[in-house]
Task: inverse folding
């Protein structure tokens, strides 16, 4: 019994690492690039955005799983999947906005328009759809999405740190601003591709 | 079909209920004065006051950090309204207000450089590279950003032209003998 729990724990740990690093949601799957580019000028706002998005990802995925398995699948309403998921995501984002506004007004000011824009973040919709496609169980879903949220925050904070340094570097005029940020993002993506060599078996 | 309609209705109702309760529970008490001031502002976010948009200016005015005369497009009317709202006595003779003005492009010297379009906060200037630009009066807020940007001084601020749609009967000038003047003084 204890051994069985052990194996599942190891499995979940492997899943966590593989979603956070090997299949990083931004740098390998290229989902959620809007906040990755938009809110990565300062580390503290990037961290806030990463945590807010992570919260939405995990909550929305959990609610979407319940919705899919208790409502859509039994009634054969698979064609309503995207619509109802978006409904859930929008509600969760609205809820997050209310909470952030109450709990952290400074963060609310800093995130500005990007906070409601979490609703249109493709990572938030993409992960529940991947969960359905790969037929994850509820716990796997939560672990998978928590790992992805962790990976998203990690990528965002690392990118913001690099961009903070980049702001002081002498960049050729033609590359200044967004172009050099995209070059940097692609280099980071290449670096994250290296994690695909990780072998857990 | 009915299952789909019912399930979406149910979903919407439940989520709406949750959000409604959350909005009550996490309500943030904002100063109603800021909202009232923001409603008075022009709302074009032109940035001439040096603050990030009209909402920022409203916050600064409510906190008494900015003068009520800080909004050039608002002019004398706005300054008077804000002073009344905040209970400040204000000497309005110092405020220069030549009435509302809108940008106008002098077509004979416009070179079509497109610089004015980029600084317009309301996208009120139409034009393309090497084409003469023009101002859509209904969209222009008279912030004057384009005047400084124009390399040929083709953009000028002109008093709002009187058209049939918004001509009003001019106010009768107040004669000294009139009884109403005594009340005003």
Result:
């Amino acid at each position: 019994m204890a051994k069985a729990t052990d194996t599942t724990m190891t499995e979940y740990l492997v899943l966590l690492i593989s979603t956070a690093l090997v299949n990083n949601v931004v740098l390998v799957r290229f989902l959620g690039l809007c906040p990755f580019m938009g809110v990565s000028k300062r580390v503290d706002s990037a961290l806030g955005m990463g945590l807010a998005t992570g919260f939405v990802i995990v909550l929305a995925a959990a609610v979407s799983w319940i919705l899919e398995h208790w409502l859509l699948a039994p009634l054969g309403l698979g064609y309503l999947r995207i619509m109802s998921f978006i409904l859930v995501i929008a509600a969760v984002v609205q809820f997050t906005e209310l909470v952030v506004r109450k709990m952290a007004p400074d963060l609310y000011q800093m995130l500005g328009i990007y906070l409601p824009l979490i609703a249109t973040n493709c990572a938030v919709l993409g992960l529940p759809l991947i969960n359905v496609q790969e037929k994850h169980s509820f716990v796997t879903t939560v672990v998978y999405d928590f790992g992805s949220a962790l990976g998203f925050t990690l990528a965002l904070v690392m990118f913001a740190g690099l961009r903070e340094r980049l702001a002081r570097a002498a960049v050729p005029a033609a590359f200044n601003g967004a172009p050099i940020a995209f070059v940097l993002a692609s280099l980071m993506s290449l670096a994250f591709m290296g994690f695909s060599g990780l072998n857990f078996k | 079909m009915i299952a789909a309609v019912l399930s979406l209705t149910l979903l919407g109702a439940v989520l709406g209920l949750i959000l409604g309760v959350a909005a009550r529970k996490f309500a943030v008490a904002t100063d109603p004065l800021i909202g009232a001031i923001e409603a008075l502002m022009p709302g074009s976010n032109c940035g001439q006051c040096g603050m990030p948009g009209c909402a920022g200016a409203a916050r600064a005015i409510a906190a008494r950090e900015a003068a009520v005369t800080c909004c050039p497009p608002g002019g004398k009317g706005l300054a008077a309204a804000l002073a009344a709202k905040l209970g400040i006595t204000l000497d309005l003779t110092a405020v220069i207000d030549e009435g509302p003005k809108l940008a106008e492009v002098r077509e004979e010297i416009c070179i079509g450089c497109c610089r004015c379009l980029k600084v317009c906060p309301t996208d009120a200037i139409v034009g393309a590279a090497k084409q003469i630009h023009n101002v859509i009066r209904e969209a222009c807020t008279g912030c004057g950003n384009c005047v400084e940007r124009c390399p040929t001084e083709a953009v000028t601020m002109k008093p709002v032209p009187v058209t049939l749609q918004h001509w009003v009967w001019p106010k009768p000038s107040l004669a000294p003998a009139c009884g109403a003047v005594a009340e005003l003084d």
